[in-house]
Amino acid sequence: MTLHHDEVPVDEDTVRSLVRAQCPQWADLPLSPAGAGTDNTMYRLGDDLLVRVPRTADKARSLRKEQRWLPRLAPLLPRAVPEPRHAGTPTPGFPLPWSVLGWIDGEEPGPDTVSDWAAFGADLAAFVRELHRVDLMGASRTDDLSWYRAGPLQPCDEWVSQYFQDCRATVGDDLDVATLERFWRAALALPEPAGGPVWLHGDLKPSNLLVTDGSLHAVIDFGGLSVGFPDAEHATVWDLPAAGRQAYWDAMDLDEATWTRARAWAVAVGVSGIAYYWHTYPAFVAECRVRLDHILADATTR
């Protein structure tokens, strides 16, 4: 499934050739598809490994971040995170960097895997607090660690405003885009966050979390790893059921301005996701719609 105009095609044969050429010790292990996101395509290699292949040259930069920083962050975090095992290099058959990580067992959080959403929300909040407390170890908001969601809202207003228009044209009256846009503009009127930069995962949506025995076990896909303001880190709380959202809010105990900016980031990602992926990635559009519906529902109760 092609999602981007500049996407580099890849299939199982391509991945097998990369492994054979650069990781001959794993060449005979079974290989099978293990899912795909907006940035990468994944293949399970044997029982213990995961191959991540970027969709575009821009997405490939995230793999280098994981290779450099995850080994340093992992010992400082309260949940498992991916372990880089090989930094793949471009080849004539696939002209981008790629990566092999250790496989982590677990399932995506959902109604069939999580029974206590309040406990899950509190566990996620604990992970976020610990990540944000980790020393920057000399890292700064530059180069690969600079990402739009780690900065202020204002520089994104032009493209977000365009996506509001696109979303209206796509969804029509089926979604209250006007209210969502008011939430965005309310956050724009606030001052920028105070305080110093912190480590950010960047995309703590359910598909980047793993549970075992109903509890948060691991946090994966650090492609959005960045340094900056923490507001957008909280945006994915609206992906959780109400009990999980409330527990996260209670545990984080953040001020109203931070939540207003976090909600604006959630709106921006949701609206742009619907407009951009409407014809190519219906599953992701559905995720974005759930997030926006939760935001609108919470606006009447909080």
TrEMBL record:
It comes from the Bacteria. Residues 32-265 form the Aminoglycoside phosphotransferase domain. Pfam families: APH. Keywords: Transferase. The keyword Transferase applies. The keyword Transmembrane helix does not apply. One of its GO terms (molecular function) is transferase activity. SUPFAM superfamilies: Protein kinase-like (PK-like). This is Phosphotransferase. The lineage of its organism: Bacteria, Bacillati, Actinomycetota, Actinomycetes, Micromonosporales.
